[in-house]
């Protein structure tokens, strides 16, 4: 079992940047495929970015070229660098880890507004 804790959310103006972190504990982090999902009010949760245990990444089309997902297995931590933020990036961002089972963090709010 793995416990996930997100941090780094907040309020940012359009065009700004934020860096989200997801700290994992309780299991061997390196074996997990980990990712970031987000959920905007009234919308379904969607996958934003994911990185496998081997380092392969995939992104939601609307964030390609703006967001970068990375992981530091030595620190059991995953990151999401978000640049050129837009109002439509607003939502609760959740950390996810998958290896046989799905694990979720509690979420962190990201608000992009002027």
Describe the protein in words:
The protein has 114 residues and is mostly beta strands. It is 0% helix and 54% strand. The protein is built from no helices and eleven strands. It has strands spanning 3-7, 10-12, 18-25, 33-39, 46-51, 57-59, 67-72, 77-82, 91-99, 101-104, 108-112. The strands form two sheets. Strands 2, 4, 5, 6, 9, 10 and 11 form a seven-stranded mixed beta sheet that branches. A hairpin with a 4-residue loop joins strand 7 (67-72) and strand 8. The chain is globular, with a radius of gyration of 13 Å. The N and C termini lie far apart (40 Å). The relative contact order is 0.32.
**Gap from first CA to last CA:** 40 Å
Backbone structural class: mainly beta
Contiguous runs where pLDDT drops below 50 for at least 5 residues:
none
User: Percentage of helical residues?
Assistant: under 10%
How is the secondary structure organized here?
Elements: E1 3-7, E2 10-12, E3 18-25, E4 33-39, E5 46-51, E6 57-59, E7 67-72, E8 77-82, E9 91-99, E10 101-104, E11 108-112
Parallel strand pairs: 2-11
Antiparallel strand pairs: 1-3, 3-8, 4-5, 4-9, 5-6, 7-8, 9-10, 9-11
Q: What distinguishing features does this structure have?
A:
114 residues, seven-stranded mixed β-sheet, four-stranded antiparallel β-sheet, single chain, mainly beta
């Amino acid at each position: 079992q793995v416990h996930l804790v997100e941090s780094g959310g907040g309020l940012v103006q359009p065009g700004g940047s934020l860096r989200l972190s997801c700290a994992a504990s309780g299991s061997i982090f390196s074996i997990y495929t980990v990712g970031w999902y987000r959920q905007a009010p009234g919308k379904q949760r969607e996958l934003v970015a994911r990185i496998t245990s081997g380092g392969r990444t995939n992104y939601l089309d609307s964030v390609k070229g703006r967001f970068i997902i990375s992981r530091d297995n030595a620190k059991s931590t995953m990151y999401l660098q978000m640049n050129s933020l837009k109002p439509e990036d607003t939502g609760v961002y959740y950390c996810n880890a998958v290896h046989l089972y799905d694990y979720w963090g509690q979420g962190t709010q990201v608000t992009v507004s002027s």
